[in-house]
Structure formats: structure tokens, C-alpha cells
Amino acid sequence: MTDTADNAALSPQSGKPPLRIALAGLGTVGAGVIRLVEANADLIARRAGRPIKVSAVSARDRGKDRGVDLSPYAWEDDMTAMAARDDVDVVVELVGGSDGPALVLARNAIRHGKALVTANKAMIAHHGMALAKEAEAQGVAMRFEAAVAGGIPVIKGLREGAAANRVERLYGILNGTCNYILSTMEDTGRDFAEVLSEAQAKGYAEADPTFDIEGIDAAHKLSILSAIAFGAKIDFGSVDTQGISRILAADIAQADSLGYCIRLIGTAEADAGPDGTPGLFQRVAPHLVPFDNLLAHVDGPTNAVVVEGNFSGRLLFQGAGAGDGPTASAVVADLIDIARGMDTGFEADMAFSIPVDGLEDMAPAPAGHRLGRAYIRFLVADRPGVLAEITAAMRDAGVSIESLIQKGQASKDGAVIVAIVTHEVPEAAVAKALTLLEGSPSLVGQPLVMQILGA
Amino acid sequence: MTDTADNAALSPQSGKPPLRIALAGLGTVGAGVIRLVEANADLIARRAGRPIKVSAVSARDRGKDRGVDLSPYAWEDDMTAMAARDDVDVVVELVGGSDGPALVLARNAIRHGKALVTANKAMIAHHGMALAKEAEAQGVAMRFEAAVAGGIPVIKGLREGAAANRVERLYGILNGTCNYILSTMEDTGRDFAEVLSEAQAKGYAEADPTFDIEGIDAAHKLSILSAIAFGAKIDFGSVDTQGISRILAADIAQADSLGYCIRLIGTAEADAGPDGTPGLFQRVAPHLVPFDNLLAHVDGPTNAVVVEGNFSGRLLFQGAGAGDGPTASAVVADLIDIARGMDTGFEADMAFSIPVDGLEDMAPAPAGHRLGRAYIRFLVADRPGVLAEITAAMRDAGVSIESLIQKGQASKDGAVIVAIVTHEVPEAAVAKALTLLEGSPSLVGQPLVMQILGA
């Protein structure tokens, strides 16, 4: 703790000086953090054992109205300068972006011996290992509860609450935008593009929605959760990532009639590959979720994570996946943890539950040998022989069919929908069947394959 | 850390000595803890920064086969003696019972400067404040994650994950036995007594099920959660507690037809009473839960807790509420926390998030002024004029009726069921209506009132 005038303002309760923070990035989350530390100041001081005090703030545009009074706080035009301030114990990075100013600030904060709290999933997914290693070397805390699943304390749940368990599988709904779009398509029967536009208008989707709808945001979060759950180094690059933009209203109707809803699911599992090599399987993709699964009732911009531990059994964490209030709640929870413990250095090695050098380098597990049931949707020309061609390919690839539904006209160009649900087969067999069908004049466009989420 | 021969066995990773525990009580949970620390030993050592090692065990019957090999561990006939052992850092109390040997052991452990980990909800509900105060004075940790909701890290979720929030309401399903009975009655249409017998045969209910079915166990847990959520002293005595034994198969059918299931819900809310006095309302009672509520899909012996924070919004924690594996998972999570931090004394004041002297004495809030919709079920004699009598009493008490259903014959003595759902009214008005009907020859037995869980 640096010795400054602030130390005069000791907490009446504990005699400890306030925890002093610098806040970089004053978007909705940054403004939310300021509102929260002001609104709940007394309660936070009681729980943290000392007040949490904003010393300085920084953002691109000083003049912008953010609905909060910034005049009590020092303003820094150069956010990196905050890392060097004597009146700052923790730098809160809410700028966003995997590299650039956020990363420069994060590194500088740690190098100056400040604790780092961030909501930046992209930065942690790409640079989390390097940052955690620097934080360990400096003996400062690095925390990122707000980077995954908004206000849900799932990182704490994994890192501490489920710490006694070997995690067998982890899966969840990690992107509120996709979940809002899919559950709205389900409720209204409308098409993807239309619902996306509406989500953009309502502020549930960004103007450039690529990171969300292509599954990249969920993959960032999944790779962070995987590292903690499996004691492995973050491996964002190995997440098999598919988005939701190819899903048709007809897929949702079809799934519904079979007893499923469609959700973008991130799933991670320790998996001995076909040759027995231990590895880690990570995937973000739309899945068919049986109505009796815990995740089937997660609608709107909600997030939910299921952790299957070898002693705990199945744990579900659910709540708001984004928004200023929930995200600020997670940021300030991290600050309270640091306020409770930072003088002792206790927090320093805890970013990923295990010090970085103790995290395993787990090889990415391939998907081909994985057994599962799949939903395969074809758009086909409406002419005789198409079904025979498809079912022959399935037979030749060893894919056993549980049900096949051919529906009437689906699109203006006269294509019709054929949807197949397979029995449990290796994913490679499904891939082989599609290879056999490649180039067939019967098919209109690429088939869409979605796995059915297993119990 | 006491200086003993064990310090020679340093953890290769951190150089820290093992955390040494004494285990009192070797029922299913105690045996589960031993299985867990053995099965996941490597992983626990990686996450805790040092091994967790059982030094001594104690139980009533040394000879009993518990499916685990106890020979590596010192046996104490007198469990209290474990508190004084030099080779013990933490006493794990799994004996049960609010007083008696469990309490003697807990006090002795703390007085000897040992950390205390317990799964004993009754002891914490009755003596948690006194024990936490002694633990603070001694500077030792006291933890009880396993006392509430089995393997679900909900105490951690409240105390740390949601720490930044003013909790507005907390509610949940806190007793797996009741939830199993109610969801089985729902699935099978059978009566309470029959399903209870089956639950006893399957081991989901005790031979003496009173604590479970009368809501006392859930009230223990609720009072513990309330203290943490609202920063208040535990006040188990003020929990308005009703059980599930009066619920008929017909109530469940009736609720179902109206769009509700019936669940035993513990609910706590900071509540300014009718005169504006701040207070804490705590109740355990069967409620009608709308099908679209998060808790309506919680079936079988599962527990679930919803925390509504003023910034986080609604957080849901769900999982197995009992059983050896889940409960052991919570016990060992507490041990890992202590292993990570106990050398620093950081854990000492954290039992209830705020030191005991900082917890508020919140007055119990009365129920009468609380607004809600209620389900009132009468058993009535099948004769003319009964409905007029009931509806007149409702009118005179100011209770507005949303729906009234009279069903055919319900019991062998010719009584029929009349079920009323009220509009939103003060609870006192419902009570007054029932007072007006008291002693009426039309009524067979006491009416049953259940509140409808509000959004």
C-alpha cells in the first residue's frame, strides 16, 4: 500500500485504508461500476473491510455524458498513465479489444505493481497466460470474473466452489446475443436476419455482430472457463467454432417438433483421443438441446453454465450474461476480493486457480471419434431420387438414421428441406456421408449439421 | 502452522506444508470426504498449493465398514481430543446435531486455534454467531459451505460472488427430501403419505422425517443464507416455518391446472414493516410456483437458490442438495480455501462476509401487510350454501377472488374441495377471512393457505 494522504481516511471498522482504483473505459460497464461503488458504498465497505474508492478515470471522450458525475475523480487523458499513479492500488480495465490500449494498460498496471481487474474476454483469451505470469512474478492479483457470463460468479464457482472436483464436462450458454436471437426465432417463427436486425435495434446486438453470431465471443469465454476447469493453459485457437447465422426458422420448427430447442452451446471436455492421448475438446456450436435439459429453459439474453464434477455432480450457474449492472457486479466482486486479501499477497497466484507454470499443455482433442446423435439438414431440389441418394450416402458412411423428415417447399427457389436425426455415430461418419454427397446436383447449398446435446 | 515432522513433507510445487485435517463423523459424508481427498489428491494439491492430508478420524463405532480404508489415519475414540492434536490444522465436524458432541468439538477446535469446517446447518443456525465470534477472536477460519444446499457453492456465491450487491430478495428450494416428495406427487398423482414411505425406502427421507417435512431443515439453511445476504445476525427463531405434510394430491392437481407446481420455498427479504420499521422477513412454506419461474423445473432431490441483487439481477445456483459426493465437494472446497489462505489469517473474519459485531440485528418483519396472491383450499361438506358462506367471508375480509374451483368428491367422508386463488391482497386479509369462517360447520378441518411465488 503506497503511503499517501488517503491513508488518513481509514475505514472506521477495520482501520484499513481504502482500496483505490483507477477505471479505464467509461462505456456502459464503466459507468455501471461508478454507479455501483457509489450506490452500495457502505455495504461494500462492510463486506470488503474497507471502502473502495475511485481515484482516477480515463476514456477516449472526456466530454460525453455518461449519466454519472465524474467530477470527484481525477481524469487522465492517457489511460496508461493511470498505471503509474501513487493513489491507485487496482487498475480496472474496461476498454475492450484483445490487443491495443487495453493490453498496454494491463501490462503497465501489473509492471507497476497494481492489481488488475478486467472484463475483457478477448484479451484474457489471447494473452491471459502471459498476463497471469507477469502478475505472479509481481505478486499482484489479476481477476476477470466479468469477462465470462456477466454477473454470474461462474469463474469463482469453478476456481473455488468446485475446486475439489475433477471436472468431467463443462457446457453452457455463453453469448446472450445468440441466445436472444435463437429464443426469439423460436417464439416468433421469424428468420435469423429479421431477428438480428431487431436485436440490433434493441441494443442486444452490436452494429457489427460478427463476434457474437459467429461464436467467437462465446469461444473466448469457453477457453477461459476451460483453463480453470481443466487446469490447462488457455487454448482459444483450438476451440472448434461455429456460429448461428445459417440456422433457418425451419430448423427451429423442425427441432421443436422433435422435442428440442436450438441453442449456441460452448462445451469442453477432457477427452482421450482415438489413440488414447489425453486431450481437451472445446467447441462452440449450435446444438439441439432436449426440452428436459437444464439449458432448454434459458431464454433471452441469459447465460448459464453447467459444471459436471466427479464429486459435486451437475452444478448450474445462471443469470444475466451482459448489461451494465450485472457486469459491474462482477467487477466489484473482484475488487472486494482484492480489498479483503491483497495486503497478504494471497490473491496473486489465483488467476487460474493454479499458477501458470502448473497449468497443463493439453493437446486439442479431435472430434472425429466422438460419439453423438446429430441433426443434419439438407436443402434439396424437389425431384425424385433425392432421398435415395441421401440415405445411400448415410448407409455407405455407416450413419444409422433415427428419423427423416421431408417438409414442403422452404424457399423461393423451390428447394425443400430434408432433416435427418441420426442414431449415435462417430462424428467422422457424418462428415464422410457429407463428403459422399458433395457436388451432388440434388443438394442446394451446404448441409447444416448440429449435434444433439447429450445427457 | 505447528512445527511437526509433517513439515518435512513439503509440497513440491509451493514448498508449503500439507494442510492437516481431523475428521469427526464418518457417516456417508465423512466417508465421502475421505474418498474425495484420496481420489482427487493430486488435483487438490495443485489447486490448494499444497496437499490436504487426513491426520486423524473419529466416529462412534470404530468397527463399522464404511467402504473406505481408515488404517492410514490415527483413530481417536474421544473426538474432542482431535481438537488438541498437534498434527491437525483444521477440524472437520460432520457429526450433526445443533448441540451435544458437535458443538463441544466445534468450540474446542476454535479454542485450540484450529480452523473449523462443518456441514452442520442446525449448529450454525443456532450457534453460528457465537462460534464465528470465537473464531474471529482466535483468528481462525470457520467455514460451512456444505451446511447449505449440498454441493452448490451458494454461500461462496453470496458472500463473495454477489458481495457488491444489496440483496433484494433471496429464495430457493433448500430441502431435497421435500422437493423429491412434491415432484413425485406431481409426477404420479399419489398422496403424501405414500410418497413419503417410498422416499424413506429409497433413502431420500429419514426414518424420522420431521425436520425435513416440517420445513425445519430448510429454515436452518434459510437463516444462514439470510445472515450472509442481508448482513444480519442469524435469526432462526423468526423464520415463519410451515411444512408440506398437509398437501393433498388434489392440491397438486389443482395447482397444475392453474399453471403452477407446488414447491417448499424458503424466502427472505429485507422488508420495511407496515410502520416503516426496517426488518427481515423469513419464511419457509409450500408455495405455488408459476411454470415460467426458474424454480418450476427443479425436480427430485435438487436444490436451487435465486439471489436478486440490486446490480447483478437474478442469479440462480442449482445442483444436488445432498448426498455424499456433493456434500464432500463443498467440505473440501472450504478446505482448499483454507489451504490457500490460512497462513495469512485472511479467512478469519469471513464466515458471514462481515465480522459478527458488524452484522445488524434486524427485527423480524411481520407478514400481515405483505401483498401477494394466495391459494386457499377448503375441504367442505357437500351441501348447499357452502360457497356463499366462503365467498361472503372473503368479501367481508376484503379478499378479492380471482378464481374459485369446486371439485367433486375428494375424501371418503364425503368432503369436497373448494380451491380459491385470490387477487393480490395483504396476508392479513386472508387470515381475517379464515377467522370469520372459523368454527363453521361447513368446513371439514383447517383450510390450507399457500402463497403464490411472485415474479
What labels would you give this structure?
disordered N terminus; 3 domains; elongated; Alpha-Beta Plaits; 33% helix; alpha/beta; 13 helices; 455 residues; 19 strands; homodimer; Asp/hSer_DH_NAD-bd (chains A, B)
Domain module count of chain A: 3
Question: Quick one: how many beta strands of chain A?
Answer: 19
Shape of chain A: elongated
Q: What's the CATH class label of the largest domain in chain A?
A: Alpha Beta
Low-confidence stretches of chain A: 1-12
CATH superfamily of the largest domain in chain A: NAD(P)-binding Rossmann-like Domain
Instruction: Supply the helix-strand structural class of chain A.
Output: alpha/beta
Number of helices of chain A: 13
Strand content of chain A: 15-25%
Helix amount of chain A: 25-40%
Q: Whole-number radius of gyration of chain A?
A: 24 Å
Rounded to the nearest angstrom, the distance between the terminal CA atoms of chain A is 50 Å
Q: How confident is the prediction overall: mean pLDDT of chain A? A: 92
* CATH domain topology of the largest domain in chain A: Rossmann fold
Kindly report the greatest chain-chain contact and the residue count on each side: A-B, 63 and 63 residues
Multimeric state: homodimer
Largest sheet of chain A: 11 strands, mixed
- Which CATH architecture of the largest domain in chain A? 3-Layer(aba) Sandwich
Question: Can you put this structure into words, describing what you see?
Answer:
- The structure is a homodimer of 455-residue chains.
- Chain A is α/β, with parallel strands linked by helices and 455 residues long.
- In chain A, 33% of the residues lie in helices and 25% in strands.
- The first copy, chain A, has helices spanning 28-39, 41-48, 101-111, 121-138, 154-161, 176-188, 192-202, 210-213, 216-230, 249-258, 324-341, 386-397, 427-437, and strands spanning 19-24, 52-58, 74-75, 90-93, 115-118, 142-143, 167-173, 240-241, 260-272, 278-290, 302-309, 313-320, 363-364, 371-372, 374-381, 401-409, 415-422, 425-426, 448-452.
- In chain A, the strands form three sheets. In chain A, strands 7, 8, 9, 10, 11, 12, 13, 15, 16, 17 and 19 form an eleven-stranded mixed sheet that branches.
- The longest helix of chain A is centred in the first third of the chain and has 18 residues, at 121-138.
- The relative contact order of chain A is 0.13.
- Residues 1-12 of chain A have low confidence and may be disordered.
- Chains A, B: L-homoserine binds at residue 206.
